[in-house]
Amino acid sequence: MRRLKIAIVDGFCPRPYEGQTWEHEAMGGTELTAARVAEALAADHDLVVLQHCRQQVACSAAGVCYEPGGDWRKLAGTRNSDVVIIINSLKLLALWRKHAPAQTRLILWRHNFMGATHKYAAKLLADTNAQMICVSHSHRHHTLATLGIAEGSASSARIGVIYNPVVTDQRGQRLTVQTGVDSNQLLFASSPHKGLEQVLDNFMKLRQRIPQLSLLVCNPGYLERPLPIYDGVRYTGKLRPAQVHAQMRRSLCLFNAQSTFAETFGLVFAESHSMGTPVVAQRGLGAVDEVVGDEHGQVLNVNDVQAVYELIARWRDGQRPQLSKNPAFDLDAVKTQWLKLLCSIVVDSETQQSNIGIVPKAMA
Fold it and tell me: Which pTM does this prediction carry?
């Protein structure tokens, strides 16, 4: 396969990021994933990441260039990329098709859910001859249902799945309570808008039964808001991914006891398992069942105070499960899926036939 010129278009990132930003700054999951994938693909293709909020060009050691966006119409008409991967934006997808050379192939990389205002998306994908990538099978199923697309139809063939990569320093190593885990520390590691209020309420109910417990709250820092003060709750502020992973290793569990915010993938869940740390999460919410799985009671009704108490009590009593990273989330596996997708697009460009592959469903 020839070396392609690929542009990733990010019109929503809260601040600029580069190839190694995760080493010294907190990052949101979408931005972290975009950078990880770009850096990985740079060994095989020429990558540029266009960001709406960037002012200066920066190039990574892997050869990825992170460049200013903003004047999207001009960029669409002058970049002359073989493939353009647009993060989330249907508007930018339509703009790129209108102004880019006809041979430019387009991919819509969705990291959030489709809603009622996106009913035109299926027609737009067909009109732009674009593929769409979801980040989990549950995300894809939700997308098909929302857009009214039947499985097996030509429209559904345009919508595929590639997981977000999980990159930590543990390499899937299994950890147990005996290796330095604090059996009294629970961790919430998401932005406050992702159900933190409910998590705090459920934690305080749990702490009434187990007063020794503490809850550590850290977040990527892209949404600042006043945080309530509770006994046993400590806010760390923004932490780098490596710092979050260190807290995951140390904590009894990732305590995501909320039932209101659904994740399309849930990178922190997958990272927690990679650290050997179990997760408390709401059954049936977003991609929880797919990414966390139903083993060891991790997935339950988080508002059932007794059930949550019994689960935490078992884990504190030496029955904490041993977990490791799902190999489907490994960076090499994710890169392979992206390379297959890019290859299929080249074939499609030559044969004018739709040929997008779907990642086999991973074992939870």
Answer: 0.91
